[in-house]
Amino acid sequence: xxxxxxxxxxxxxxxxxxxxxxxxxxxxxxxxxxxxxxxxxxxxxxxxxxxxxxxxxxxxxxxxxxxxxxxxxxxxxxxxxxxxxxxxxxxxxxxxxxxxxxxxxxxxxxxxxxxxxxxxxxxxxxxxxxxxxxxxxxxxxxxxxxxxxxxxxxxxxxxxxxxxxxxxxxxxxxxxxxxxxxxxxxxxxxxxxxxxxxxxxxxxxxxxxxxxxxxxxxxxxxxxxxxxxxxxxxxxxxxxxxxxxxxxxxxxxxxxxxxxxxxxxxxxxxxxxxxxxxxxxxxxxxxxxxxxxxxxxxxxxxxxxxxxxxxxxxxxxxxxxxxxx
Amino acid sequence: xxxxxxxxxxxxxxxxxxxxxxxxxxxxxxxxxxxxxxxxxxxxxxxxxxxxxxxxxxxxxxxxxxxxxxxxxxxxxxxxxxxxxxxxxxxxxxxxxxxxxxxxxxxxxxxxxxxxxxxxxxxxxxxxxxxxxxxxxxxxxxxxxxxxxxxxxxxxxxxxxxxxxxxxxxxxxxxxxxxxxxxxxxxxxxxxxxxxxxxxxxxxxxxxxxxxxxxxxxxxxxxxxxxxxxxxxxxxxxxxxxxxxxxxxxxxxxxxxx
Lengths: 325, 258
Description:
The complex is a heterodimer of chains A (325) and B (258).
Chain A: E1 5-9, E2 11-12, E3 15-16, H1 18-33, E4 38-44, H2 48-52, E5 61-66, H3 75-89, E6 93-97, H4 100-113, E7 116-121, E8 123-127, E9 130-137, E10 142-148, E11 153-157, E12 175-177, E13 187-194, E14 207-211, H5 221-231, E15 234-237, H6 239-243, E16 264-268, H7 274-280, E17 285-290, H8 297-300, E18 303-306, H9 309-324
Parallel strand pairs in A: 1-4, 1-6, 4-5, 5-12, 6-11, 7-11, 14-15, 14-16, 16-17, 17-18
Antiparallel strand pairs in A: 2-3, 8-9, 9-10
Chain B: E1 2-6, E2 9-11, E3 18-19, E4 26-27, E5 33-35, H1 37-53, E6 56-63, H2 67-77, E7 81-86, H3 95-108, E8 113-117, H4 128-136, E9 140-149, E10 155-162, E11 165-172, E12 175-179, H5 191-197, E13 202-205, E14 219-225, E15 234-235, H6 240-254
Parallel strand pairs in B: 1-6, 1-8, 6-7, 7-13, 8-12, 9-12
Antiparallel strand pairs in B: 2-5, 3-4, 9-10, 10-11
């Protein structure tokens, strides 16, 4: 059966990425605009159960590449899986979440399929039969609205741009296997090294608490970590403190770091240089805490507190704990 | 070993970006142009690979007159040669067209390893390295934060940054490697290097030389606008306890975020 839209669903250790479900939700909306259905494609090893769960999120069919070659992420094996599924589904639109995996895979697929590539969109819709997408460029200082000219498109969707669809009970989607056993990748992931267990990545978090020079020293991050912990959020950082070695680069938000759009972004002791703002300006709600009332961060923030972050943040952490009981 | 580095010139990140009069692009006539920051990590890694295994580093780029500055800088750092596709039609070309042109340049340079920056900071598409690898039918490792070539030059072990960790990838050459910040600490050009660069060749080629078709128009720009003006934060007054109480009330009751 043909499906209008195909969505690549990312899993690691059998766990589906939240942003893939967002992509599936958008896929369902766009498929219905196109008068068709959305199918999902997933790759890995021993993922039958994970694949079966996708029907509940709107997938009308699930293409599964379940093979040892796909046990860990491999550009070549995963590209073969998705391209194979795209051919079977006869889809004209392929959506991937713009994660580390999605951003590696999407352009490779666009080149293989010869489809246009709309990268890192924050919005997408069908208009007059064409896919249109919105994406910020030049560090968010200009917003491009684009339309794909040919009808076949690979769309990269920035995480946290759309809502996760409601889970419907009891809907099982038909499963179809994609054979990738013949792929012999020239680039092989031999292992995955994880950061500190339980830490949430800034790019995926729904709440981010970031610290900058106002923390005075590396140890200052403890107030950031405590607040992030209380909120169930991730720890972010400005470039200045990453360059100073106070925290790892994978926490950096901004132009040479990560781009985030969480529901809540708390910037503490960050002045708000354009390079930082580039990475967080699409956050839905921005709170800034800074001792300098003239700090540019207050221009982009929704709520501002002028004060000492070492006084404000611990009180905030305490209040959040009290609220959550 | 023949190593190629893809370089792009981009507006400096602190440049003032103005929306052009027709609302279909940005006005770039007064910006300062710099080498894309991620390309500097690519360049450094290429030089280190040459130092380890021997061979040559060639830089390739697409653009007009301005690209020559970037090429000279790369030659001063230690690149052995440079090829520039001089063609203004690529300035706003889609990523696949750019990748096709780069693939032709890579083939012309007979490269075995290609280093790129993981993305250009002007369009931020992060598309070209993977597309280039696909067009060459080579493997790719993008967002590389660690790179160690094997002694025999057959491949490399590459660390790739992912959410909350790293993938350790073993890749066989030829391959495309896309550099992330943290891969290395780029060197500065020496005076001797700058002098030597003046004598090194920059080969200028045209689309016809590379038998390239005109860039496609797979993406149409509908409009370009400035981001919604922020009116500035609503400042929460009072002492720290009052400020926190009010903020929590807003986040909990009004915004339902906490």
